[in-house]
């Protein structure tokens, strides 16, 4: 984790815009993607009722956090967006991501991604509305890097959308 933390610190320290920062941080996560062993065997089991998060690191000045997420098969987030940029990498399993745009009184489905082991992606608001699920038959584990102190604000989610989906 030390190399990942140092790389993210350098990327964030350039003080670029959110999109540019997410691209730089994605490069660091690709270079230093940990293995599922970043969590204990017990943590990797997940929770039967809801996906679990484990804070791995918070930069002392709050500039970024690194969090592991454990998803049992079928577990899913609500449709949501974020308070800041986010970069994630899949360590185990498959994370199915659905992408949306907000159009008046509904959401429009604009894409899907199956993120496999070793894949890294990122995004920055606005335009980061999505829903993520474990679409595989084994527990999925991913690492997420957020541009804020997650331990201080408790969640990276800015808004949950409860609108009809079209398209």
Describe the structure.
- The chain has 167 residues and is of the alpha+beta class.
- The chain has a single domain (2-150, 159-166), classed as Jelly Rolls (Sandwich), CATH 2.60.120.
- It has four helices and eleven strands.
- The chain has helices at 2-12, 18-31, 41-44, 150-153; strands at 52-58, 65-71, 80-82, 86-92, 95-103, 106-115, 120-123, 129-134, 140-146, 157-160, 165-166.
- Helix 1 runs antiparallel to helix 2 (18-31).
- The longest helix is centred in the first third of the chain and has 14 residues, at 18-31.
- The mean pLDDT is 94.
In short:
The protein is of the alpha+beta class and 167 residues long.
Could you name the CATH topology?
Jelly Rolls
Q: Which architecture per CATH?
A: Sandwich
- Main CATH class: Mainly Beta
Percentage of β-strand residues: 35-45%
Give the count of structural domains.
Answer: 1
| DSSP strand count | 11
Strands side by side in the biggest sheet = 1-2-9-4-7
**Which structural class best describes the helix and strand composition?**
alpha+beta
Largest sheet: 5 strands, antiparallel
State Rg.
15 Å
Task: Tell me the number of helical segments per DSSP (H or I, 4 or more residues long).
Answer: 4
Mean pLDDT across residues:
94
* Helix/strand order: HHHEEEEEEEEEHEE
Distance between the termini: 41 Å
Described by the principal axes of the CA atoms, the overall outline is globular
In which range does the helix fraction lie? Answer: 10-25%
- Give me the CATH superfamily: Jelly Rolls
Spans of 5+ residues with little confidence (pLDDT < 50)?
Answer: none
Cross-link (3'-(S-cysteinyl)-tyrosine (Cys-Tyr)): 86-146
Family: Belongs to the cysteine dioxygenase family.
GO molecular function: ferrous iron binding; oxidoreductase activity, acting on single donors with incorporation of molecular oxygen, incorporation of two atoms of oxygen
InterPro entries: CDO_1, RmlC-like_jellyroll, RmlC_Cupin_sf
């Amino acid at each position: 984790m030390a190399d990942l933390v140092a790389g993210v610190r350098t990327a964030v320290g350039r003080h670029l815009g959110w999109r540019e920062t997410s691209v730089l941080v994605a490069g660091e996560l690709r270079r230093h993607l940990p293995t599922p062993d970043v969590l204990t065997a017990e943590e990797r089991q997940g929770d039967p009722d809801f996906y679990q998060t484990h804070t791995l690191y918070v930069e002392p000045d709050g500039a970024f956090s690194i969090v592991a997420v454990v998803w049992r098969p079928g577990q899913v987030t609500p449709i949501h967006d974020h308070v800041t940029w986010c970069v994630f990498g899949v360590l185990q399993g498959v994370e199915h991501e659905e992408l949306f745009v907000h159009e008046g009184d509904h959401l429009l489905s604009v894409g899907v991604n199956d993120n496999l082991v070793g894949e890294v992606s990122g995004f920055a608001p606005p335009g980061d509305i999505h829903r993520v699920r474990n679409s595989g038959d084994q527990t999925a584990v991913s690492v997420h890097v957020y541009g804020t102190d997650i331990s201080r604000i408790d969640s990276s989610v800015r808004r949950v959308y409860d609108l009809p989906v079209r398209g």
